[in-house]
Amino acid sequence: MRSATTRTLLAAALLAAFGSAQAVVLPPGSTQPLPGTTAAAEPQLAGVVEVDELVPFSFATPGGDIFGNVQVRVVRSSVDDTIDFYWRVFNDRESASAVGSFRIGEFYPTTYDANWRIDGLGDVAPLSATRFDGAFLGYVNFNFSDLLSPGTSSNFFFLDTDAHSYAKTAIYDLTNFGQTHISGLFSTYAPVYANVPEPGTAALMLAAGGVFGFVGRRKRQRAS
After folding, report:
1. How far apart are CA 100 and CA 149, in angstroms?
2. C-alpha to C-alpha distance for 160 and 115, rounded to whole angstroms
3. Which residues constitute the domain of residue 214?
4. Alpha-carbon span 137 to 208, nearest angstrom
């Protein structure tokens, strides 16, 4: 497995060599690699932090509990006044095992532009993102292929939107590697557009038994 430092240095070198990073748009029903980007390459990412929250999580696995914090951040672009939504995951050093993915639902921008920040804090980046299709177009998995091991934190990863307003209408959870065990659901921020009805509630996700392919035999536990 590549070290986080080596991966980040390689990504930074590639970004410098090509001069800029292109937007990573997630088509429905696809998984796309996330190469990482910077505010220098995408100036619209620079802005003012309007929300910065640290939310604890924990969930049980056969080997013990996985626990830590998610940093939730909302940034208003200083270039075009649009809103970007950031998350960063901290896996506690006493956790039993690695975090495998961060999954967001009920998130409805006009375009799904995902990536992670090379020019920021963190040890491990999500190397790909998966967007679902059909009834679940508003659901995205950020996948830690290098594994977010105990005692490490992720880089900030984000969804860049053209919205100018936001509200706490989205949800997220976390999984272990292999997505066999998952945390409870947490509320988070999502874009709000004028003259557009608010998206459905988390009930859709729950009614589906877990939109990300959860099955009844998998163990769900609420975060403490």
Report:
1. 9
2. 8
3. 4-220
4. 14
Whole-prediction pTM: 0.80
Say how far apart CA 156 and CA 34 lie, in whole Å: 12
Longest alpha-carbon distance in the chain: 48
Q: What percent of the chain has a predicted confidence (pLDDT) above 70?
A: 77
Looking at this protein, which amino acid is placed at residue 36? G
- CB count within 10 Å of CB 63 equals 11
| Residue 199 token pair | 């998206």
Please count the structural domains in the chain.
Answer: 1
Residue with tokens 């029903």: 29
The pLDDT tens digits for 10-36 are 444 434 433 345 679 999 999 999 999
How far apart, in whole angstroms, are the C-alpha atoms of residue 205 and residue 26? 20
For residue 71, the SS3 value is strand
Residue whose pair of structure tokens reads 């998350």 in the numeric block: 87
